[in-house]
Amino acid sequence: MHEILAVLRPLFFAALLLVPLEWLLPARGPDRRTRAGIVADILHATVGTLMIRFGAMLLLALIAPFDPLVHLSGTIPVWLQAIILLLVCDFIIWCVHRSFHASPFLWRFHRIHHSSPHLDWLATARVHPVEQIVFATAMALPMCIAAFSPAAVAIYMGFYTLHANLLHADTRLSFGPLDAVFTPPRVHHWHHADEVHAYDSNFGSQLVIWDKLFGTAYRPEAERPSRFGVEQAPPENFVDHLAAPFRAQPELRSDSGGAVAESAH
Asked: Which sequence ranges are marked TM in the entry (predicted)?
């Protein structure tokens, strides 16, 4: 019961905050999701999240050190620990995210997250458990190695969870001058664009610094992509999403007319 509440509680508060925001400051107007897409993402947000929590805990138990190498808790202020966590974890996320786009094998799993033809806060949860277990474990390792205080971890994870949902929200909200520091929704929307010129860009999660440093930032004048998703997307079905990476991958036509596997974008 505790695990179920741990999944449902943040989902409830995210809906309470972001549904009104999408209604008051919509980005795309009247287009709406299909019923099948809504059901699939609700299952991702509940059943899929439970799978991810158990998988990540198991993987961490196997690879994390038993004793922290560094004890930051109690040695530096909580606010500074939270900033360190933000910088370290965000860089790890950028590296892992970039890898899931660069590797055809890893793209099989990440492709599920990009398969939604409509972005909103609930689309945040559309992730394959295998992919998200890798992300969650990679993010948790610095917390285990450096023994951050529970308060610092709670601050960072709260900020990360809220911002992740906001990035996918169907909203034109801007952070104003802070857009130069923190990734706003419109920038991450371009990461999900099914448009060739936007491929392989905007991998940053919360901070924009990594995309700027590594030349993967993309901020066009247009406010919104013309379409989202991937070609030959799997059916809008939770079970199909789980199985899709283990099936034969779709083949698309190249410009020269030959059949090629879909590129990771």
From this structure: 6-25, 37-64, 76-96, 133-159
